[in-house]
Amino acid sequence: WESDQSLSSHRKLRRRRWVRNCVPMKISSMAFLVSSAALRGAAAFSARHQRRVRRAADLSRPRASTAAADTKASPEGSEAESLIIKPKTRVLSGVQPTGKLTLGNYLGAIRQWVGLQEEYETYFCVVDLHAITAPHDPKKLSEETLSAAAIYLASGVDPDKSRIFIQSHVKAHSELCWLLNTQTPMGWLERMIQFKEKSAKLGDQESVGVGLFDYPVLMAADILLYQAGKVPVGEDQRQHLELTRDIARRFNDMYAKKAKRDMKPFREPEALFVKEGARVMSLL
Fold first, then answer.
1. In this structure, what DSSP letter does residue 236 have?
2. Which of 84, 111, 146, 249 has the greatest CB tally within 10 Å of its CB?
3. Which residues in 58-83 are b (16+ Cβ under 10 Å) and which e?
4. 124: helix, strand or coil
5. Closest residue by Cα to residue 143 from 128, 124, 162, 159
6. What is the dihedral of CA 47, 48, 51, 56, to 10 degrees?
């Protein structure tokens, strides 16, 4: 019995020694295998990443032009050119839905919009809020607004290339107009020639609404709201565009004078002078 007990204790001692010595070795070997696999995976990922970086650098590096006229462009060069996408300048324009759109509207504005779609990021709107600054029939104005939008589409303005909308459907137009009103001096508006001309046509100065006087500020809100870079204008709208630039500059100086140019609240738009519509003689 004593010999059996000593043998059992001897086996227990050997088992403890094995656990103490061999198990950590196995665990460490497993950890080594895992870490080795991780290192190999990291190395492979790093190699793939470096190949991508070198390939991108090769594509972006300008290639020397050859004198041979029959040299064909390499596929890498064409791929690099396709990766460079230059942002288009944004253009905003609109037409009032007052009465029937005439042939002059088509020749002077809408037909030229079709050509602008390919070169610029275009926004075209029906400015019905401007139309209510003069006496109008509300029911008729609603019909003419939808009709004007339909004429845009029929004339070739592509909704896949351009944004087409109705001014009064975007509340931000009137909201921004009020904010700009608080920063626009009265003297600037009193110099507007169109207000003098239109109010003279209405006859009685007492019946002229404030909306007609404030018309240029709403136009400025239309332009500045979309950060338009260029605005198609004719001779009669140049002064209003200059006022828009003055309002934008004044607002930026008051609230973001130290900000960088591309961080200013408003972008100062530039004029895109369109060709004047052809003079259509009477057909009668």
1. G
2. 111
3. ebeeeeeeeeeeeeeeeeeeeebeee
4. strand
5. 128
6. -140
Rounded Cα distance between 92 and 244, Å, is 13
pLDDT tens track for 265-275: 999 999 887 66
Span 223-273, pLDDT tens digits: 999 999 999 887 777 889 999 999 999 999 999 888 887 788 999 999 887
At 91 the three-state DSSP class reads strand
Does pTM top 0.70 for this prediction? no
What is the residue whose two structure tokens read 């004339």? 155
Strand order in the sheet with 121-126: 162-166, 121-126, 90-95, 230-233, 270-273
Around Cβ 224, how many Cβ atoms within 10 Å?
Answer: 24
Give the tokens for residue 147. Answer: 């009709």
* Overall residue count recorded for the chain in this entry: 284
As a whole number of angstroms, the distance between CA 17 and CA 13 comes to 6
What would the pLDDT profile of 98-152 be if each residue is shown by its tens digit? 766 666 566 556 777 888 888 899 999 999 999 888 878 888 888 889 888 888 8
